[in-house]
């Protein structure tokens, strides 16, 4: 039985997530909106795409059901949170699973991001942006997909950060966090990737 809808006013930073659909899957690419406060987030359901820029601090009013808020009104409540887009950026790759790991290894993940992707970013930024990578070992986290029916990005992020911390890593000390989920994992096998930006 689902939880009853309740009126709610929330404040936080608008985060926009773009989800690419796999070729051959009858599902369009999606743009998802979240209101993030610290390490928690709720998904915002707008009737129309909002005009706020990613990273904008906003206050929203609407109807909350579960972790989704149907937005009735929204306003700016503070300055936008900017992101640094030049310099050397560190990336923590958190390799997680709740079913079974695939054949990817931490060494391969580091090579992909720290070598292949780094070369692309260096080339397209005229050597203004570079990436260095660190990968965790495979880490088991709880299954939050409700039987493979959903892919709750922020719950997976929170569980991944907790697992990484328990394994001796400090996610907050990196510029970026990347989550690697085994190919074909139920609930998260529609998109080849999701990425969010705050500015």
Name some characteristics of this structure.
199 residues; alpha/beta; five-stranded mixed barrel; four-stranded parallel β-sheet; 2 helices; 17% helix
State the gist of this model.
With 199 residues, the chain is of the alpha/beta class. It is 17% helix and 40% strand.
Topology summary:
Elements: E1 6-20, E2 30-37, E3 40-45, E4 57-65, E5 68-78, E6 87-97, H1 106-124, E7 129-135, E8 139-140, H2 153-166, E9 176-180, E10 193-197
Parallel strand pairs: 3-5, 6-7, 6-8, 6-9
Antiparallel strand pairs: 1-2, 1-4, 1-10, 2-3, 4-5
Could you explain the architecture of this structure?
This protein has 199 residues and is an alpha/beta fold. Helix content is 17%, strand content 40%. The protein has helices at 106-124, 153-166; strands spanning 6-20, 30-37, 40-45, 57-65, 68-78, 87-97, 129-135, 139-140, 176-180, 193-197. It has a 5-stranded mixed barrel with strand order 1-2-3-5-4. Strands 6, 7, 8 and 9 form a 4-stranded parallel beta sheet that branches. The radius of gyration is 18 Å and the shape is globular. It starts with 5 loop residues before the first strand and ends with a strand.
